[in-house]
Amino acid sequence: MSFRDATIPQDWPRLADWLGAAGHRLDLDTPPRQFAGGLANLNYLVSLDGAPAVLRRPPPGPAAEGANDMAREWRVLSRLNAGFPLAPRGIAFCEDVAVLGAPFQLIEYRPGIAIGGSLPAGLPADAPARLTSALIAAMAALHGLDPASVGLEGLGKPTGFLGRQVEGWARRAAAVWPDGDAPASVAHIVAWLRANLPADAPASLIHSDFKFDNMLVDSATLEAKAVIDWDMATLGDPLFDLGVLLSYWIEPGDPQALHALAQVPSLEPGFPTRAEVAAAYFAASGRAPVPLDFHLALARFRLAVAWMQLYRRWQAGAVHGNRYLDFEKLALAILGHVAATL
Q1: Residue 253: which domain range?
Q2: Statement: the pTM of the whole predicted model exceeds 0.90
Q3: 163 and 203: one domain?
Q4: How many angstroms separate the CA atoms of 227 and 95, rounded?
Q5: Shared-domain flag, residues 91 and 228
Q6: Total structural domains within the chain
């Protein structure tokens, strides 16, 4: 794990007082450190009750629709570990914004490395295959879990899930491109998605952002240690999770502009193709293979709009860093690619 200087000052003594009233002890002699990864929510390594834990909170400013939902994530993490051990345990949750300026939670710390857009040096030659297998196995295990077995059968509204995703992301697109400024590809994509909406599939627990940097692995064995970032978890079509993963999975033959996405290291030698990832998922989950054109188009549309949301937040000064500078260009490139494939 890597760390950076805190982007938001926290009132650590006030947090210590709140935790003390809840029966926990925050050790301020061990300075909290902010994790360097992530594009939205803020995560800090703290010492709680004599052990490392993670403080997790939203970024400043108004949250984008459906994002940064600490209450939803707490509901999931306070229950899911009983049936899905890769989910860290929830420790404490606070809705009172007077403590830190936003709702926040404390969750179990799991050591491990998160793989981003490139592989760390020194991994074995078969690391791409092993990492992909671990990711697919974890996704299939989550989708195979009975939500009722962990008390999450009421999470979300699975009926009409994909249709709501289409309309929700169409709404978000209108918000990030106001006054009719959206590129023509947006209307084309939304119309195609509405016309090709599949029937409801049997619902599963889904993560909604299942990719390598949301799975911590042991640096020596490459075994999965944890799946993190559950604030968008819900009940829905499991192929949505697969589509989201494939939307990040850039191949050498994709338009050069998309190579800058760099969210998974799929361009490096040894990684399977999107078709091979999909086949591996269907084999691991025991589901019959089906075409994924709709799910991939929806996931790519979502990705483009989400990148524009982050760009707008960067423009407004709500998030900082040069990495957001080209997010608009990348969002437009993704939209163009989607529209050209429909």
Answers
A1: 113-341
A2: yes
A3: yes
A4: 24
A5: no
A6: 2
Q: Which residue has the tokens 């890597």?
A: 2
Q: Are 182 and 141 within one domain? A: yes
Q: Which of 87, 108, 129 is the last residue before a domain boundary?
A: 108
Please tell me the total number of residues recorded for the chain in this structure: 342
* 36 pLDDT higher than 80: no
Based on the fold, state whether residues 92 and 173 are members of the same structural domain.
no
318 shares a domain with 187 = yes
Tens digit of each residue's pLDDT (9 = 90 or more) over 166-182? 999 999 999 999 988 89
Strand 224-227, strand 104-108: pairing: unpaired
Pair (124, 91) in one structural domain: no
**Average pLDDT of the segment spanning 236-250:** 98
